Amino acid sequence: MNCKKHETAIVDLPCRIGEGTRIWHWVHVREDCKIGRDCSIGQCSYIDTGVVIGDNVKIQNSVNIYRGVIIEDDVFIGPSVTFTNVRKPWSHDPVDPTEYEPTIVKRGASIGANATILCGVTIGEYAMVGMGTVVNKNVPAYSLVVGNPMRIIRTDVPRGSR
């Protein structure tokens, strides 16, 4: 691994981590992950088995990214964002791996602090998810969504996206 990993971070092997990536205090990266180049994974974050993260992704502190999530290049994920991966979890039944629903965050998207991303959605290119938003359906490219449940409040191209 050609990355910087804090001594308190745990990286389960095998996994692939790109050059220049920084993994901070008390992060847990599970096996079979693919993390791109020049990423930053903030303290106390959890990256589950099989997660795919592109290049130049900034993940702030206390973010939970569960199995089935794919994050493309140049994405920002704010503090305490949580991704889900099963719609009907129960403590008494083990989850069948076929129940994991993939979630995709497209290139250049930005997700604000404390947002919750329900499984099975796609967040479009350069879309912006406001702080505390509950994303329960697909987010169109170049749009701004806020609220619980989310609603689209803008659909134009944000600055800096070209």
Question: How would you characterize this protein structure?
Answer:
With 162 residues, the protein is an all-beta fold. It has a single domain, classed as Hexapeptide repeat proteins (UDP N-Acetylglucosamine Acyltransferase, domain 1, 3 Solenoid), CATH 2.160.10. It has no helices and 22 strands. It has strands at 4-5, 10-11, 16-17, 22-23, 28-29, 34-35, 40-41, 46-47, 52-53, 58-59, 64-65, 69-71, 76-77, 82-83, 103-105, 110-111, 116-117, 122-123, 128-129, 134-135, 144-146, 151-154. The protein has a 9-stranded mixed sheet, with no helix packed on it. The radius of gyration is 15 Å and the shape is globular. The mean pLDDT is 94.
SSE order and pairing:
Elements: E1 4-5, E2 10-11, E3 16-17, E4 22-23, E5 28-29, E6 34-35, E7 40-41, E8 46-47, E9 52-53, E10 58-59, E11 64-65, E12 69-71, E13 76-77, E14 82-83, E15 103-105, E16 110-111, E17 116-117, E18 122-123, E19 128-129, E20 134-135, E21 144-146, E22 151-154
Parallel strand pairs: 1-4, 2-5, 3-6, 4-7, 5-8, 6-9, 7-10, 8-11, 9-12, 10-13, 12-15, 13-16, 14-17, 15-18, 16-19, 17-20, 19-21
Antiparallel strand pairs: 21-22
